[in-house]
Model the fold of this input.
Amino acid sequence: MTTVSPTPDTTPLKSTITTAKPAEAPSPPPAMRLRELAFGAAVAAAVRAAARLRVADALDETPASAAELALVVDTEPAPLRRLLRALCCYGIFSETPEGKFVHTEMSRLLREDDPNSLRYISLWCTEPWTWDVWPRLEDAVRSGTTVFPETFGKGFFEYLHQDAGESAQVFNRAMTTSSVQSARDVAELLDLTGVSSVADIGGGQGHVLASLLEKHPSVQGTLLDLPGVVARADARLRDGGALADRVRIVPGDCREEIPVGVDLYVIKNILEWDDESTRRTLRNVVEAARPGARVVIIENLVDDTPSMRFTTAMDLLLLLNVGGAKHTRESLVSRLSEAGLRVGEISPVNAYLHAFECRVP
Done:
């Protein structure tokens, strides 16, 4: 996409304004804060609009006016300025005294080319179906189960793949982006001393596995997930890939069987759909593993974490769309112990994830 550069000269980049931080504002009184929270949908809609319009991609390192940006993103200047003004209130973009807009740390995360981009995550959290289920949170809280089938006439994943193809693509891109970013953190955290084989159970496209194998050249790996998922495995793991000779790709459902015997099992972000799926998966790991094998469970938590506002929101969305739930530290330890695993150290992977080190008796 063409980016805005309203002063087409050869001025060195370092002389331009690259990032502006929003001015520190006093904390609003409770009544104002509650009003702001009640209008939270407006903030989510503004983030979505900016992501869809690719405003962050259009803005380069030179300050640009709303009129200049509007030419690139194909909008009317006045409403675009209103959108940017609203986003600036939350530190997403900043306005200069001259009335031009510049990037902030958060606005850069809406760029698709940023290595830590959250563009697809932002789109996924605000997909059209979310606006239909959020108003029914009261019903889900009363019943304790998903409202999705009643709202759309079918289950969440069935609807996604049959009726909402664009949303399914956004979901895949968001999950891939998130997995790639967290895979680096997982590889940095896990000590593979004494490990010669590792399996990524329900590992999606295998980004965690690929990161581990790249860091540990002597380790062999197995990726297990549903056939349609592993068919799109990370290119490094497939035939002809840099890691293919050290990888076995196993199509299967971890809730039914885990036909893999390794030193280390990694299970990341798949124990949140429902208790029965969690119990079956953990039971299958214990049955497949040899005594003394390591099992590392990696999950978001809704307690004791700096990301609680995000994870508790995701927890409510899970209730709405599939009837699932994010774990507390206590609930996850309980599930692991019930399965027969010996729970050891619990460590933060990053601000969003915790790793539970376990052993098979």
